[in-house]
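hey m, so remember when u said the tokens were messed up on ur end? i reran from scratch. heres the input so u can diff it against urs
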Amino acid sequence: MQMEKSRFTEFFIQKNDRKEREFKEWIFHRGMLFDSSDKWWGDDEKKRSKPHEGLDLCLYKDHVGNIKSLDEKTKIPAMYNGIVVSIINDFLGKSLVMEHSFPKDGNQKFYTIYGHTKPKVDFSIGRIVKQGEIIGALAPTSELKTKIFSHLHISAGYGIKDFSYDKLNWNTIADQNFMILIDPLPLIEQ
């Protein structure tokens, strides 16, 4: 199934007061990409224990060629209209799980997951969100022992069957009996 591109990058530029000249493109190391088994942080292991379930947004280039990084002030816009169905802890902050209904997809449910966030104070399960609405900011990483930049993890996928949202965690998200994950990069490309 082919998903429509979101306006994520456009909303990111707009909501974070970046001008078009201040953002040219996202930059990725191998370990930041979907299905990669490489790590891009820390100095101990060079491989992940399982392939990456999504995409890590951390670095971007401006039109002059300067490389910049995101920080905990970075606002996170929603990719699509949807509803918050779960908020789970992750190793840097919280992950917001949103369910989206697209009429052309029939009854199949599509999910986006925004990891390593500090959700807005008024966000709770059941909250209806509009495309482009700010859902939170990046979780701070300055107090962690592991040297890792603040970054946004995005996962996207289709639900295989109905399941209880209270069973969602990072193990079930990656379980193909619950969800078929897809590469989020084509969904956010400008």
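this time it looks ok to me. The first strand starts at residue 25 and ends at 27. if urs says something different then somethings off w ur setup not the seq
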